[in-house]
Each structure stands twice: as structure tokens, then as C-alpha cells.
Amino acid sequence: MVTSAEQIRRYKVLALFSFGFRPFFLAGAITAAAVPFLTALALSGVWNVKLANGVLAWHAHEMVYGYLSAIIAGFILTAVPNWTGRLPITGKHLAVFAALWLAGRVAMATLDGPVGWGAALIDGSFLFLLDLVLWREVFAGKNWRNAPVCILIFLLAVGNAIWHFNILHGSGGVFSLHFGIAVVAILFALIGGRITPSFTRNWLAKSGRAATIAPFAVFDKIAIGVLVAGLFLWLTAPAQTVTGFALLIAGLMHFLRLGRWRSWRTLGEPLVLILHIGYFWLALSIMLLGISVLAPATVPGTSALHALTAGAMGVMTLGVMTRATLGHTGRPLAADVSTIAIYALVNLGAALRVAAPFLPAPYAQVTLLASLVWGGAFAVFAIIYGRYLLAPRLRGA
Q1: What DSSP line would sit under 274-296, residue for residue?
Q2: What is the secondary structure of 183-236 as a DSSP string?
Q3: pLDDT score at 1
Q4: Which residue, 62, 39, 29, 27, is CA-closest to 370?
Q5: What is the C-alpha to C-alpha distance for residues 382 and 28, in angstroms, rounded to an integer?
Q6: Per-domain residue ranges of the chain
């Protein structure tokens, strides 16, 4: 039987397609860097362009169903072999998969009007195909523990389909965008709740310190369940008092969950600490969503939403991308100056975007600066880590 290592070595010449994280992390980073920058240019009038469905709709869709879908695909396709013990998708199959995602980006920027159905079919098929691949691996490997991940990927694909359906029928895509964001938040709570304490425990043990981190328990299940309930209410009854309180309770429970992982013990390891910071953003954003429902004059909904997207999702994706890239390309698991800069930029950009309505500076200027700083984090990743993603795994590693 051909082993994973042997299969990967066959594609040494085209290292980009030797593992799922390589093309999708690079493509996702470029998307996350380019979309906010291009949107800012278009809204400021510097770039006079007509995009399908409008600049703002294109921006929102590409950040949720473009960038995030790419990072999720990269993570899933890399993690599945570890989950199931089966071979990874590599070579021409991975190249075709990546090409489908890229075709979706091109279609979203160019196809409009009567040919909008073409964009819907091209872009919409990617997540459904990813989910089919994931279900196949889970069934083949009898790895039922990850069935919830399959369900969430399917729901994300449904959210994208709803967006296309609404746009093609002349209605807004706000619900479908919120739906996708809610699904990703639950996915991050589920997977982040696995890898954050796991990496923390491993690092503490490696550094010779007591690796006493609370294991996954009933409390974690309840916290995720309350989060699901709160986000469901946010989607179906966004202005109701019960929704605000449900989100506040969910955010508090996830702060308590984070505390069970003893974040303060990871201050000496940025590659682990960044995951805790990302989860902190997740808990904070859920609480801010709750406050925005109960007291919208105190916390605008846009600030709460960007705490979840730019904050939690931006920080957690870069935390996973940097660590996975270093580890899977055979490089030391150590954060250099560029990695620290990536973490600083993404957190600063998110903080500026959330704080924009409260600052004395003009709102438009602050949001523009926030977009450039946040996107700059992904640009640095694409430049620095892109070299690792394009090059073969280091020999002897």
C-alpha cells in the first residue's frame, strides 16, 4: 500500500499540490489581503470598477464564502488523514479542487445578470463537493466523531446556496451571510475547542511544565449547545430580548471555557497563545452581539459582527495557518519576527474595526485603516509563508 509520505513525495516537483493546506492557505490569504484593499479603493472612488452584484455584496460574500471557505478547506483536507488514517487528496485531484475554488472567485467577480446562474453553480458547488469528500472519508474511516464537522460544512454550503438564490431573485443576502458566519462560529468553537487545549497541553508537557488542562467534558458540550441556541435565535429573532440574553450567556460560558485552558500559561509561546487570543475574540464577540441586541445604541451591530469576523475568525485562521504551515513543511514550531508581526497586525486591524464607531476620528477613515492593517496581516503571511507553501518539505524533517 502506498503510504501518505510516498504519495506526497510523488508531487515533490509541484509541492503546492502535495497537501491540502498549501494551495488553500495561500489562496485564502491572498483573498483576505486583496478583497478589503480593493473594496476600500472602490468605495473611495480611486478604483472605478463595476463588480457583479455590487462592491459591498461582493466583499461580504468573498470574505465569508471565499476566504473562510478556502481556509476551512485547507484545514479539513490536511486534518482528515489524521482523523481517519487514510491517504490525503494530492496531485491532480487537489489541483482540480483548488481550480474549482478559484473559478468561483472569478465567476463572482465577473458573472452577473442572466449568467449569474453560472456563478451560482460554479461557486456553490465547491463547498458541497468538500462536504461530500469529508463524508466519504468519515464513512471509510468509520470516524463518526467528526460527523458534526460534516454537518456544519453542509450547512455552510447551504448558506452559500441561499445567498446565490436570494441575489438572483433580487432580494438581499444579509440573512445568508449571517447564517454562514453563525455556522463558522460554531465550527470554530468545535474545532478550536479541540486544538487549543490540545496544543496547550502538548507545549506545556514539552517545556517540562505540568500539563494540567481541563479535558473536554459536559461543560464544553453545554457551552457549544448554548452557543448554537443563541446564534439560532440571532438568525430567527434578531431583535428579541431573549436573543440578547442567550448570546450574553453563551459568550460568558465560552469565556469560562477559555479559562479552563489556562491561557496565562502560554504567554511564552506565541504559536499557542494566538489560539487563545482567537478564542477570546470569539467569546467577546458573542457577548457583544448580545449587547448589540439589548442595547444597540451602546454597541452597534456592525462592531459586534466585525469582532466575530475580523477578530475571532481572522485571528484564529492565521493562528492555525502559521502553525500548520510550519509543522507540515518541516520547519521549527517557533514564531519569528514576521509571524509576530502577522499576529499583531490582525489583532490591531480587528480592534480598530470594532472600535471605529467609538473613536473621535472620522468613521470612514478608521474603517479604511482597519481594513488595510487587517488585510496587511494576510499579505505578510502570503509573502513570507507563501515561500514555504510553494517549496517542498524540508529534507530530514
Answers
A1: HHHHHHHHHHHHHHHHHHHHH-T
A2: HHHHHHHHHHHHHHHHHHHHHHHHTTS----PPS-HHHHHHHHHHHHHHHHHHH
A3: 46
A4: 39
A5: 9
A6: 1-171, 173-362
Cβ count within 10 A of residue 267: 10
- How many CB atoms within 10 Å of residue 396? 5
Are 239 and 252 in contact, with CB atoms under 8 Å apart?
no
CA-nearest of 322, 330, 318 to 8 is 330
What is the mean pLDDT, run by run of 10 residues, along the chain of 397 residues? 50 79 98 92 77 83 96 94 84 94 92 72 95 92 90 97 88 90 98 94 85 88 97 97 98 97 91 97 98 96 97 98 96 96 98 96 91 97 97 82
In angstroms, rounded to a whole number, what is the distance separating the alpha carbons of residues 302 and 294?
A: 14
3-state secondary structure of 120: helix
Distance CA 90, CA 238 (A): 43
* Distance of alpha carbon 250 from alpha carbon 293, whole angstroms: 14
pTM for this one?
A: 0.93
Distances (CA, A) of 51 to 34, 48, 68, 271, 366: 14, 10, 20, 38, 24
The residues, any chain, with a CB within 8 Å of residue 13's CB and separated by 6 or more, are none
What is the phi/psi pair of residue 11, to 5°? Answer: -110, 35
- How far is it, in rounded angstroms, from Cα 138 to Cα 58? 33
H/E run at residue 378? helix 363-390
**CB 326 within 8 Å of CB 388:** yes
Task: For 225-258, give one letter per residue: b (16+ CB within 10 A) or e.
Answer: ebbbebbebbeeeeeeeebbebbbbbbbbbbebb
Nearest to 44 by CA among 373, 372, 365, 370: 365
Residue 90 DSSP one-character state: -
